[in-house]
TrEMBL record:
PANTHER family: CELL DIVISION PROTEIN FTSX. Signal peptide: none annotated. Residues 174-298 form the ABC3 transporter permease C-terminal domain. This is Cell division protein FtsX. The chain crosses the membrane at residues 21-44, 166-191, 212-237, 269-293. NCBIfam families: FtsX_Gpos. It comes from Ligaoa zhengdingensis. It is found in: Cell membrane. GO terms for cellular component: plasma membrane. Residues 60-150 form the FtsX extracellular domain.
Length: 299
């Protein structure tokens, strides 16, 4: 195909968008609505997962040590704890430090406490990377020399693990469902668009135009519509998400403020969403046009 013919077909595809502007607007509207639904579901799923992860990080495991351990045994235990993969943020709290913390909490009443009243043990306070493996990690810690007891939020861990799995499963399910609905709606929209121009396709076929020559303007039209829809959906979603973040930031609720830090900034996922919108929109437009134009090429 000559360059002049290719240029003509590109211009023809772009012209078709304007000539058939009512159907073009309908196609763009459907694409934007579907992209917004899918994008919102992705953002909700990702942020819910982050919030659950934030709550996971607030849970602490306390390792109570035996009183008669000397410094060399404490050092050896510290090395062994650092070798366990599912543990992070290991903090040693001596019995003296724990006693002093209690005195600080009591304020003026701390004078009633004497050093002989220090019944606090040496402890380690640790965070768990993956609460799903909390029980296995606790068992491994409990077998270490010098460990008297391990206090872990087992019930909370089970609840958070279940919630995290549910969020991931539901998020994937909703996105998959919306993609399926989107495919059906867009396919029907493209089908109607091509049907309204079936006479034009037949005339081009009768005057000797090749199948590719007829398909290409429709493919370019679908690509343009998909790209326009992706750009508009991206900016609408960006604006709505930014407004929501501003509202959350200004909300006086302590709970919301504590969760705000775990909300994903739009810039960290925005380009990926736009890439998905652009690829999906243009792909659906081009492939849908090819499929339905083919039905009217047999004359």
């Amino acid at each position: 195909m000559r360059g002049s013919s290719l240029g003509y077909l590109f211009k023809e595809g772009a012209r078709n968008v304007w000539v058939n502007r009512l159907m073009s607007l309908a196609s763009i509207g459907v694409l934007i609505a579907c992209m917004l639904l899918i994008g919102s579901s992705v953002l909700l799923s990702v942020n819910m997962n982050n919030v659950v992860g934030y709550v996971e990080d607030q849970n602490e495991v306390v390792i109570v040590l035996e009183d008669d351990m000397d410094q060399s045994e404490l050092d050896e235990l510290d090395d062994e704890l650092h070798d366990i993969e599912n543990i992070n943020n290991i903090v040693f709290v001596s019995k003296e430090e724990a006693f002093q913390n209690e005195k600080d909490k009591l304020g003026d009443a701390a004078e009633l406490l004497r050093e002989d009243d220090n019944f606090y043990p040496n402890t380690y306070r640790i965070k768990i990377d993956d609460l799903e493996f909390l029980d296995e990690t606790v068992d491994e810690i409990g077998r270490l020399f010098g460990v008297e007891d391990v206090k872990a939020p087992t019930d909370i861990a089970e609840t958070l693990t279940s919630v995290k799995k549910l969020v991931i499963t539901m998020g994937m399910g909703i996105v998959a469902l919306l993609i399926g609905v989107t495919l059906i709606i867009i396919a029907n929209t493209i089908k109607i668009t091509v049907f309204n121009r079936r006479k034009e396709i037949s005339i081009m076929k009768y005057v000797g135009a090749t199948d590719l020559f007829i398909k290409l303007p429709f493919m370019i039209e679908g690509l343009i519509l998909g790209l326009i829809s992706a750009i508009m959906a991206y900016f609408i979603l960006w604006g709505g998400y930014s407004y929501l973040l501003s509202w959350l930031e200004e909300n006086p609720s302590t709970w919301i403020q504590s969760m705000y830090g775990s909300i994903l900034p739009f810039k960290e996922i925005g380009l990926k969403l736009f890439g998905g919108f652009a690829l999906g929109g243009t792909g659906l437009g081009v492939i849908g046009s090819m499929i339905f134009v083919r039905n009217y090429l047999k004359v």
